[in-house]
């Protein structure tokens, strides 16, 4: 049993509802949509991610004999018979990965027989929520540190192995340069970066010997960690070593700072390197960084060429969850609307239309019913799966990353700031308002006798 691809990676209530749906013959077509209710504090937009993992999950979804044996201890034979033949046969519409989006806009729509659409809820939210969360966090650093090398350093403190891998994927999609996680490089063809450990330096009697041994082992990628003891003294040793290594055609590519006042250390180290003729040797910084610290370092004009961002990225430290939901919007051809206080939904199958200013910046989005007259602008939801099969070749992660970076050009200056900007206008169409009001009136008539 592969735990990460198993359909048992779900809430129990998906299976209890499936049983009742089967027994009541409630297998008409259902439409569920995934959306975010509100932005986290200080955020101005989100970046959709995780669709490729969702499509892969749906396309390969089935129950193994081992899983069916386990379920047979808890569910009646007719449920097991249904699950033995189970395949996802529905349709998927979604915003392409890397699309900027806003609250109340569906980013994913599942159209499938009710038991199927219900069963897949937990894993779909799990995948889309996490990668969207991390991509949205990563985008903030990308927009602050434009043209700087940004590397995901967070796997060791991510909440589990899959989280570390998907965080590497999501951050690269959002514009990071690469990751330190080797398996993410193998799985997703993400560029991998690495330097050396403090323990390597500590294991040597002399710091310069550690630098020399590392340089000779990695002559094409000599990145030296210089803050184990005294940062500036170590920088001077790097200059001395560089002179020794010239005869061996080894060039010291860069140095890494991981502690202390990074801005001041970077200035001091830059001066030492430049005076020693190492103007091409870069400075890379890490150590509990996030987008706010990047902003401060850049504002201080710290001569740092790249950054490693770890814990704050992989757990989205300032906003560790999104208020997202996967809700029924239509069943058996009838629009449905949740009325819960503070959690009411807009009914029906929807499309999101985006308009731009004359100079290509975001102007306004409209959420409308799919079958009403098309609204002005670009339709964001696209078909990705029909009858359980993908409709189009999947873009590579590199292509998705390029598309995402191009999309950032449409953001206004206010939206790229780390502080909260005025909310971006998302309009609900008149027809959608009218449908919601009609459903509300019907509810009042049925349940309270009001007209």
Describe this structure in words.
The protein has 451 residues and is an alpha/beta fold. The strands form four sheets. It has a seven-stranded antiparallel beta sheet. Helix 11 links the parallel strand 8 and strand 9 (252-257). It has 17 helices and 19 strands. It has two domains: 12-134 and 320-350 and 380-429, nicotinate phosphoribosyltransferase (Alpha-Beta Barrel); 146-314, Aldolase class I (TIM Barrel), CATH 3.20.20.70. The mean pLDDT is 96. It is elongated.
In short:
By secondary structure, this protein is an alpha/beta fold.
Largest sheet: 7 strands, antiparallel
SS element count, helices: 17
**Major sheet: order of its strands?**
13-12-1-5-3-17-18
Spatial shape: elongated
CATH topology of the largest domain: nicotinate phosphoribosyltransferase
Could you say what the CATH architecture of the largest domain is?
Answer: Alpha-Beta Barrel
By CATH's scheme, which homologous superfamily of the largest domain applies? nicotinate phosphoribosyltransferase
Our Rg estimate from Cα atoms comes to: 26 Å
User: What structural category do the secondary elements indicate?
Assistant: alpha/beta
Binned, the helix content reads: 25-40%
CATH class of the largest domain: Alpha Beta
**Low-confidence runs (pLDDT<50, min 5 residues)?**
none
């Amino acid at each position: 049993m592969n735990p990460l691809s198993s359909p048992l990676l779900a809430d129990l209530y998906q299976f209890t509802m499936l049983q009742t749906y089967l027994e009541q013959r409630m297998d008409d077509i259902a439409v569920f949509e995934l959306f975010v209710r509100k932005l986290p504090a200080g955020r101005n937009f989100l970046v959709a991610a995780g669709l490729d993992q969702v499509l892969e999950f749906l396309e390969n979804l089935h129950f193994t004999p081992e899983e069916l044996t386990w379920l047979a201890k808890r569910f009646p034979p007719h449920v097991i018979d249904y699950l033995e033949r189970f395949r996802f046969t529905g349709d998927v519409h979604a915003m392409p990965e890397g699309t900027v989006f806003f609250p109340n806009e569906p980013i994913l729509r599942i159209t499938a027989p009710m038991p199927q659409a219900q069963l897949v809820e937990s894993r779909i939210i799990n995948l889309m929520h996490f990668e969207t969360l991390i991509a949205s966090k990563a985008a903030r650093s990308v927009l602050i540190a434009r043209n700087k090398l940004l590397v995901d350093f967070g796997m060791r403190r991510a909440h589990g192995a899959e989280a570390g891998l998907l965080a590497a994927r999501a951050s690269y999609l959002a514009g990071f340069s690469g990751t330190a996680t080797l398996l993410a490089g193998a799985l997703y063809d993400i560029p991998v970066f690495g330097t050396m450990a403090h323990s390597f330096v500590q294991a040597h009697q002399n710091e310069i010997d550690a630098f020399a041994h590392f340089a000779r082992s990695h002559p094409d990628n000599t990145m030296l960690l210089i803050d184990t003891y005294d940062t500036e003294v170590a920088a001077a040793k790097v200059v001395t070593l560089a002179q020794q290594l010239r005869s061996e055609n080894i060039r010291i590519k860069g140095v890494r700072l991981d502690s202390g006042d990074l801005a001041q250390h970077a200035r001091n180290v830059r001066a030492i390197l430049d005076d020693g003729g190492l103007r091409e040797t870069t400075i890379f910084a890490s150590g509990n960084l996030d987008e706010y610290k990047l902003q401060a370092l850049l504002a201080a004009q710290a001569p740092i060429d790249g950054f490693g961002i770890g814990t704050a990225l992989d757990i989205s430290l300032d906003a560790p969850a999104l208020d997202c939901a996967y809700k029924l919007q239509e069943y058996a051809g009838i629009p449905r609307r949740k009325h819960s206080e503070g959690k009411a939904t807009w009914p029906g199958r929807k499309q999101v239309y985006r308009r731009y200013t004359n100079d290509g910046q975001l102007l306004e989005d409209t959420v409308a019913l799919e079958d009403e007259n098309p609204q002005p602008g670009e339709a964001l939801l696209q078909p990705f799966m029909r009858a359980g099969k993908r409709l189009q070749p999947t873009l590579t992660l590199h292509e998705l990353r390029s598309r995402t970076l191009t999309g950032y050009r449409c953001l206004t200056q206010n939206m790229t700031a780390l502080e909260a900007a005025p909310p971006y206008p998302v309009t609900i169409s008149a027809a959608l308002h009218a449908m919601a009001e009609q459903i509300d009136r019907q509810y009042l008539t049925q349940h309270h006798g009001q007209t």
